[in-house]
From TrEMBL:
Molecular function as annotated in GO: peptide transmembrane transporter activity
Organism: Usitatibacter palustris
Signal peptide feature range: 1-19
One Gene Ontology cellular component annotation held by this UniProt entry: outer membrane-bounded periplasmic space
Stated family: Belongs to the bacterial solute-binding protein 5 family.
Protein name: Heme-binding protein A
Solute-binding protein family domain ranges (all copies): 65-437
GO BP annotations, alphabetical order: peptide transport
Amino acid sequence: MLNRTALGAAVLATLFALAADAKTLRWSSQGDILTMDPHAQNEGLNNSVSDHVYEPLVTRGKDLKIEPCLALSWKAEGTSAMRFKLRPNVKFHDGAPFTADDVVFSVERALAPTSNFSPYMQGITGAKKIDDLTVDITTSGPNPVLLAQLTEVRMVNRAWAVKNNVVRPQDFKNKEETYGARNANGTGPYVLKSREPDVKTVMVLNSNWWGKMEGNVNEIVYTPIKSDGTRIAALLSGELDFILDPPVQDIPRLKSDGKIRILEGNENRTIFFGFDQWRDELTYSSVKGKNPFKDQRVREAFQLALDLEAIKTQVMRGLAFPTGVMFAPQVDGYDKSIDIVKKPNPERAKKLLADAGYPNGFEVTMDCPNNRYINDEKICQAAAAMLARINIKIKLNAMPRATYFPKIQNFDTSLYMLGWGVPTFDSLYALQSLLRTNALKGGDGNFNLGKYSNPKVDAAVDALKTEVDPVKRKALAKEVLTIHAADVGHIPLHHQVIPWAMRSGVSAVHRADNRLTVKWVKIQ
């Protein structure tokens, strides 16, 4: 038997070994996290960070298949409810137990008017507590994508929200500040330690987490660095371990550096341009008294002015797939037969403008983020140069994402760029959010920021909401995309290819949703 001294030494040795294995992950991208409120802003990086602190009932594994998270099992209760058995003995970061009351509260919170998560709440009417560890999610009828939607509905502790006056989500688009924007209380594997907007966000390991930690990261330090050169220099010098968005022009050089690893994969995200199609006069244009974007010929002229292959090769350095549709091939409902990229035709574009009454073109402001998507501002600059060939003068208005999203979400734009990922991997999420007529409620057209509208599209999208037959769902999606392409409702540009850059001793799981999941990260 070991004596006390030997036993103490053995325990200390074990603790020192664990401490030595625990690592800090220092990572960066060009823009900052927008808010810590898990229902305030539906944006890719924001959701990725939220996943470390807050958890949903069901989640996606390394293969992107749906698997249990805070719910252990589920089953349908008729056609208008799904019953979930909750994981027992789960605690929030402040020690409060996770129960059905928190699920009911979180669902109601995500349904609130200030929530930005209406695309995930389509068809959901509420939640009903059965007992402390059983809850029903109620729906307005059959919902074929309910589980996929719930992967993005994160659970908030009701008592904490009441105590800190964050019962409803932060109104991000109107620049509201709340306690929940800089503080958090979830059940996830990491606890928010500190939050300095545009400076640094620090999370530390949740020692009471219910799940299995496959990696060895006990602290996460996220630092936004807008300058491409500064981010790369920090990675090469060892000040950073991981970069989510290395500049594409540096990828060949990074691949040749033995100290750096590059992981690449197709992202489930489509970059596109949208037009104001609802105002009688554009807010930001030289055209007075009317709105040229209400004319399909003008929208088609803009499309024919753009050379998507040139954007791919010259701006994206090959890391893009030009497209003619609004969602990527990974999404259920994608049909290659209608993914047709129109070849540039400046002469026809000029004729269309002339036929529409603009033989000399016109000037319009293009709103563009400069720290959200890969080479976003450079794409807009390239598009502006191409449009100049048909006498369209673009006044480029590029800005950081923290300013950009509130602006365009308030419809304060005439021409804009947006990127749209599909976390549910189902066409409804994109079609309802981007193409259906904006209804200001229920998720219909919530990111249809130019207010494109076609009754036939609306009817097909509404049918898609409850259709459970996969063949019929694909046919409805094809119908919507065919109509939309003829209308030139938006101009799809490309699906992104995402490279990640990291030090050679870092291993991570690269998924099509472009989310770094730190519980799987190992650092040597």
